[in-house]
Design goal:
Layout (H helix, E strand, L loop, with lengths): L4 E5 L8 E3 L5 E6 H27 L5 H32 L7 E4 H11 L7 E6 L6 E4 L1 H19 L3 E11 L2 E10 L3 H11 L7 H20 L3 E7 L4 E9 L12 H4 L13 E5 L3 H12 L4 E5 L2 H10 L4 E5 L7 H15 L6 E5 L4 H10 L3 E4 L4 H13 L1
Parallel strand pairs: 5-7, 11-12, 11-13, 13-14, 14-15
Antiparallel strand pairs: 1-2, 1-3, 4-6, 7-8, 8-10, 9-10
Helix pairs in contact: 1-2, 2-6, 4-6, 9-10
Length: about 400
């Protein structure tokens, strides 16, 4: 699929307006990549709020029927979020704007997160088995690797209707390069397969809507695998199942990155009476749902929160009081988070003030978003939807610096 440039052209006569790619009177011209990026941000923000609130409610006491309903809603929202991310990645790959991320990730935690992300039909069991020789920490583009594997598994499930799925991870080395080999296959016995087919009816006919969805997923798997420098192929037949293998290049870290807050570091975080952290945080977010969600997450740690809706209000708040840290959305009306951060850093230089730790909040986890945050003067960033454990870890790391 080719992407074209579009512009919005207005007819000065006022009689008719049209969409075209003309040059005269053109007021804006966006590539489909840019348009999808903007659309992705607009979609991810309410989805992040929905997911965050659902997960917050799911941590409380619920009746079994209520919990099942909320878990289904949570799974559906995550499926929609993955589709938005997939379309965004496809657009960036098509236009050559995708950037490979090489960050350390904990393999077994990564696998656990994949298990939580899978939206599988009732009665399907997915088994992840990690070879003992796979190290705890690897370096690679774990986000896009997740997209490839999740889409591959969902394609397999939709086509085969299998009841058990084995995903094995192992390390291969060729000419000094390291690869993560992932085998996906049905490990059900024939008796279980027959019972499942009888229970589910005729699974040979796939609805048109499902075919369209599988089409998008196939494109994501092929294009992202090629972008990552990997390979994907059917690896032959076993007695009872087809196995697909996915091979993706990874690297071994030169040193282990410690992500936990060590006792001597934690001592640097200010304390209140009773042992709670007396941390004052400025939260800057224009979306009401996200702002409320993050505020609740921060209050669960007994941190004091001042919440404002844009950069102008943030600068006004900083004039009247001191904060230990700021959480800053990068896209906001009136004054966005990047420009707000630049003004904060400029003020600190002029007045000789100590730098305020600033954590950016972005709609995507892409490397370019992180680069923009750091270039503007931020200390770190988190992507939406915001995972509470990751948010707490980033905040504690910045407070300890």
């Amino acid at each position: 699929m080719n992407f074209y440039e579009y512009s919005l052209k207005f007819d000065d006569s006022g009689e008719n307006g049209d969409l075209g790619c003309g040059q005269k009177d053109s007021v804006s011209c966006f590539s489909v990549d840019e348009w999808l990026s903007l659309l992705g941000h607009e979609l991810r923000t309410p989805l992040a709020g929905t997911l965050g609130m659902l997960e917050l409610v799911l941590t409380g006491e619920l009746a079994a029927e209520q919990r099942n309903a909320l878990e289904l809603a949570n799974a559906s929202a995550r499926t929609m979020l993955r589709l938005v991310e997939d379309l965004h990645d496809l657009a960036r790959l098509e236009t050559g704007r995708a950037q490979l991320q090489q960050d350390p990730f904990e393999v077994r935690s990564w696998v656990q997160n994949l298990t939580a992300e899978l939206n599988v039909t009732e009665g399907v069991r997915v088994l992840f088995m990690v070879d003992a020789r796979v190290p705890e920490l690897l370096v690679g583009d774990s986000g896009r690797m997740s997209h490839v594997l999740l889409n591959l598994i969902e394609i397999y499930l939709k086509r085969g209707g299998v009841a058990c799925l084995k995903v094995g991870l192992a390390m291969d080395t060729l000419d000094g390069a390291h690869f993560l080999r992932i085998d996906v296959g049905d490990v059900c016995g024939e008796e279980m397969r027959v019972a499942l087919l009888r229970a589910c009816g005729n699974l040979s006919r796939v609805p048109l809507a499902a075919l369209r969805q599988v089409g998008v997923k196939q494109a994501v798997v092929r294009n992202l695998t090629a972008f990552l420098g990997g390979a994907l192929w059917p690896a032959g037949q076993q007695a009872d199942a087809e196995i697909r293998s996915l091979v993706l290049p990874v690297a071994l870290p030169t040193e282990y990155a410690v992500t936990s807050i060590e006792p001597q570091v934690a001592e640097k975080i200010p304390k209140m009476e009773g042992g709670r952290s007396a941390v004052s945080i400025l939260l800057v977010e224009d979306d009401d749902a996200i702002r409320k969600l993050v505020e609740l997450l921060l209050q669960q740690r007994s941190w004091q929160v001042t919440a404002v809706a844009d950069g102008v209000q943030a600068l006004e708040s900083l004039q009247s009081r001191q904060f230990d840290l700021a959480l800053m959305d990068i896209r906001m009306p009136r004054l966005d988070g990047l420009e707000t951060t630049r003004r904060i850093r400029r003020r600190e230089r002029i007045l000789g003030l100590p730098p305020l730790p600033i954590v950016g909040m972005t709609a995507h986890a892409a490397q370019q978003d992180r680069a923009m945050c750091l270039e503007a003067g931020m200390n770190d960033h988190v992507s939406k939807p915001i995972a509470s454990a990751h948010l707490y870890a980033i905040i504690e790391k910045c407070l300890a610096c």
